[in-house]
Backbone:
């Protein structure tokens, strides 16, 4: 009964989405107030039915209703409750349901928190999001229904993919989806502004906090995904340039460009057409990401068993959304004029360069990701593009970004003199180059140009940001810093600081990490990165839904005990083996041990050992960036705008009564 | 600077940047592509002798040998043809006999494929698209081969 209610709820949600997609946009076009007014109730209605549908599937998981095929294939009775809840989005159908729920959630929130935006504009935004909802609900109901029943329900379900039985996975997809789907808000605002023909600074101001929040979610999602892959996959890497990772990284890069471009559009009224285009691209790449993950067209560690008919549907949907919005853009773009001038040395130039670099980077990643697909489709051959391609393109392209992060913030809007800028930047330049090389020479195990470059760039960002603080503080010094800088300013500060931290992490961990695969017997020890790893053997024991070999490795440094690690090799009931690494985490280094297979009969094992300096800084940098984005989204001026609008409407209704 | 000059400077900077980027991209693409070959392709000498490539197929049942040391040997097959593979290191969790596999490496002089990387996957039911294609092609070829042999008799 419950699954049928869920099914019905999804159909009703589709009806609501249809209403939401058609009437508000048509009403805004024809000027029918009653149609425009449908936007809010339709969006909230869709949210209600989506929530009911989602709750029904979750109930199916909690109650072990194995007559639902999705529940039967993705859970069993011994699964811990956390993974019953997160299992809902663990596979294709459920993750799609989650995607759609997230979309209706964003739509609902937009209708509730957009008092400062004219009703017609909100109606158009909600309408555009309705179109996307219709597409996804149709996709779900036609090709991937989560409520399909089994005629002969099994007594026991299979199991959730063991890789996904981890707290990291419980939060990674939701965060990522919040980010992906969140860009639909920026997209909808851009389309709505084009539909209305009013591409002024106002729409940029309205969509800016939403874009920032979506970007924060995406940042956190990627950071947690990377961290999860690091400790769960047992390879000790934190980024593999896997097509699916790229699929989340491309919208992030374009989103970063969008966040910066929106700032110029709001503050200076420039880059209007460019910002619109970025909003379209960011969301299109989010959709493309969904397509890549869900169609199984690429060989990827993330690719799950899939059904090609789904790929065709998403591809069609993708071309409708992207094609339609680009068509609208080409029709309206001629009317978008940015009549603002700025000189070569100005913050605008810095942001323009940043945007161009980010765009080129995203394109080169897109090329590397889609190249195998295109060649295969042309019948030229089956190829794959390896991580070295991405590294050798990404690093030289993005290194100038770190330089710009410092210059851009210190340059003035509109015009600055090259000479005064150079004078200002001379000291940080000198200190960062000197400091970076000195640190590489004396504080690190051996000299490396890559590490020196990384440290110079990181110091440069840090020093220019401190200089920026000093400038903002003015004569009042430290007191002035806290008085004069807005939350958005602090957002920029922490976001850019995140770059510095990230660069240190990437440079040091990729250059100074050491690893070893070895055969080790009970009682043997191995020396790596200044640490001694003593293998005390592995024992067989049982977890809730798996059996495991649990190894014990005692790590010491110059005779002093550092940590005892317990790497595990699990055999899940579903028959799938899993490696759980033993990790000792630290701010300056991680020690990482993973069990391979037993070798021979005398208790010897293959063991993989890593010493990874500064690997935590990679994720720490990401967290800094996310924190900065959050601060920027919570800037006081957005609340002021909302309050002003509320007061105005209250005054209007009061006036109406009198 | 006049507006026209300024536009020219921006344009020039853009062109230089784009040129630099595409140079980087094509240089990197050129040296980092690896082609995919099936055991049948190797038997037909289509695979390069001096370049890294990817080999895909099924791990043949009963061929996995783990020695006392880290080197593992197994046979990859697509039905009609087989290739011996050697890999030193720790295999991914989901490596199993009878399952699909993709290995990256070089073909040695003794026709043993020396892999530096064996690709892992997330899902036991997942078959890499290349492997699935290779298997179905090999199947078709095997059938036609048999048919022609039959016709000869």
Residues:
């Amino acid at each position: 009964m419950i699954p049928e209610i869920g099914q019905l709820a999804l159909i009703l949600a589709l009806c609501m989405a249809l209403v939401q997609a058609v009437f508000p946009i048509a009403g805004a076009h024809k000027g029918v107030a009653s149609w425009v007014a449908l936007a809010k109730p339709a969006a909230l209605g869709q949210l209600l039915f989506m929530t009911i549908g989602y709750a029904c599937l979750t109930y199916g998981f909690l109650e072990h209703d194995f007559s639902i095929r999705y529940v039967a294939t993705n859970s069993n009775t011994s699964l811990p409750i956390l993974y019953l809840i997160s299992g809902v989005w663990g596979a294709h159908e459920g993750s799609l349901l989650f995607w759609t729920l997230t979309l209706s959630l964003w739509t609902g929130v937009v209708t509730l928190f957009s008092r400062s935006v004219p009703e017609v504009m909100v109606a158009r935004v909600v309408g555009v999001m309705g179109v996307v909802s219709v597409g996804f609900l149709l996709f779900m109901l036609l090709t991937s229904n989560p409520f399909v029943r089994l005629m002969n329900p099994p007594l026991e379900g299979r199991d959730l993919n063991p890789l996904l039985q981890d707290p990291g996975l419980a939060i990674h997809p939701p965060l990522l989806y919040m980010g992906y789907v969140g860009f639909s808000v920026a997209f909808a605002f851009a389309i709505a502004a084009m539909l209305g023909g009013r591409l002024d600074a106002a729409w940029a101001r309205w969509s800016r906090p939403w874009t920032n929040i979506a970007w924060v979610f995406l940042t956190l999602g990627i950071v947690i995904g990377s961290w999860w892959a690091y400790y769960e996959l047992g390879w000790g890497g934190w980024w593999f340039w896997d097509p699916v990772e790229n699929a989340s990284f491309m919208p992030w890069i374009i989103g970063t460009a969008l966040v910066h471009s929106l700032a110029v559009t709001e503050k200076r009224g420039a880059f209007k057409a460019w910002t619109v285009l970025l909003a379209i691209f960011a969301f299109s790449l989010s959709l493309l990401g969904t397509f890549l993950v869900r169609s199984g067209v690429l060989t990827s560690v993330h690719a799950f068993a899939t059904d090609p008919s789904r790929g065709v549907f998403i591809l069609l949907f993708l071309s409708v959304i992207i094609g339609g919005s680009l068509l609208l853009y080409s029709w309206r773009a001629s009317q978008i004029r940015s009549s603002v001038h700025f000189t070569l040395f100005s913050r605008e130039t810095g942001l323009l360069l940043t945007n161009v670099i980010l765009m080129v980077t995203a394109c080169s990643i897109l090329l590397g990701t889609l190249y195998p697909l295109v060649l295969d489709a042309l019948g030229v051959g089956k190829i794959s593009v390896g991580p070295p391609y991405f590294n050798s393109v990404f690093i030289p392209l993005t290194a100038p970004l770190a330089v710009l992060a410092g210059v851009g913030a210190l340059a003035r809007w509109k015009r600055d003199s090259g000479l005064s800028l150079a004078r200002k930047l001379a000291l940080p330049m000198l200190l960062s180059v000197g400091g970076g090389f000195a640190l590489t020479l004396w504080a690190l195990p051996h000299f490396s140009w890559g590490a020196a470059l990384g440290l110079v760039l990181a110091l440069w960002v840090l020093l220019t940001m401190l200089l920026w603080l000093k400038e903002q503080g003015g004569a009042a010094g430290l007191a002035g810093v806290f008085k004069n800088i807005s939350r958005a300013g602090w957002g920029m500060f922490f976001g850019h600081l995140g770059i510095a931290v990230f660069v240190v992490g990437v440079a040091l961990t990729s250059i100074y990490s050491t690893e070893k695969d070895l055969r080790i017997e009970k009682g043997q020890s191995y020396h790596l990165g200044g640490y001694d790893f003593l293998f005390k053997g592995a024992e067989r024991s049982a977890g809730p839904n798996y059996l495991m070999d649990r190894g014990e490795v005692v790590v010491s440094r110059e005779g002093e005990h550092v940590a005892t690690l317990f790497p595990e090799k699990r055999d899940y009931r579903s028959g799938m083996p899993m490696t759980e690494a033993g990790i000792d985490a630290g701010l300056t280094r991680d020690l990482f041990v993973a069990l391979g297979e037993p070798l021979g009969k005398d208790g010897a094992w293959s063991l993989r050992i890593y010493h990874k300096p500064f690997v935590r800084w990679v994720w720490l940098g990401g967290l800094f960036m996310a924190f900065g984005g959050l601060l920027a989204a919570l800037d006081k001026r957005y609340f002021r705008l909302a309050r002003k609008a509320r007061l105005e409407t209250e005054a209007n209704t009061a006036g109406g009564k009198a | 600077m006049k507006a026209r000059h300024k536009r020219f400077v921006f344009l020039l900077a853009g062109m230089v940047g784009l040129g630099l980027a595409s140079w980087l991209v094509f240089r990197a693409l050129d040296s980092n592509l690896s082609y995919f070959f099936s055991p049948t392709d190797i038997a037909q000498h289509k695979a390069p002798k001096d370049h890294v490539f990817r080999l895909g197929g099924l791990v043949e049942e009963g061929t996995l040998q783990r020695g006392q040391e880290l080197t593992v040997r197994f046979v990859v097959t697509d039905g009609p043809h087989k290739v011996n593979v050697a890999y030193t290191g720790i295999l991914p969790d989901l490596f199993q006999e009878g399952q699909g596999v993709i290995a990256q490496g070089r073909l040695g002089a003794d026709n043993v494929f020396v892999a530096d990387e064996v690709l892992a996957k997330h899902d036991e039911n997942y078959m890499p698209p290349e492997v699935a294609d290779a298997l179905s092609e090999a199947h078709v070829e095997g059938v036609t081969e048999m048919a022609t042999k039959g016709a000869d008799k």
